[in-house]
Amino acid sequence: xxxxxxxxxxxxxxxxxxxxGTRCAGAHTVTYVGISAETDSPRFGFIVSRQVGSAVTRNxxxxxxxxxCAEALPSVRGGxxxxxxxxxxxxxxxxxTLRAExxxxxxxxxxx
Length: 112
Hints:
Blueprint: H1 11-20, E1 22-25, E2 29-35, E3 43-48, H2 55-72, E4 80-86, H3 95-109
Parallel strand pairs: 3-4
Antiparallel strand pairs: 1-2, 2-4
Pfam family, one: Ribonuclease_P
GO cellular component, one term: ribonuclease P complex
Subunit structure: Consists of a catalytic RNA component (M1 or rnpB) and a protein subunit.
């Protein structure tokens, strides 16, 4: 689970990260990374729309993404704002595939 300082909570933060951040697309997710000059802890946000599936499926995908980000937290640079958007195909893939895709994007765009 991600601690409160590691979560994006305001809609304006999501919007700024998606509009101004760099983008890394995978087959099942799209990761947006915004880097600020601050040295605060990195913050994560997740977008899982209804197109992904039922509420149970969406919450499962969100929990998987949170687990991957909590695991990758030490390798992400401070001040980064990261939004991960799940695509509909994320509902059918296993955890290891989802993890590999997110970690690849985080290493490319937000690593220390």
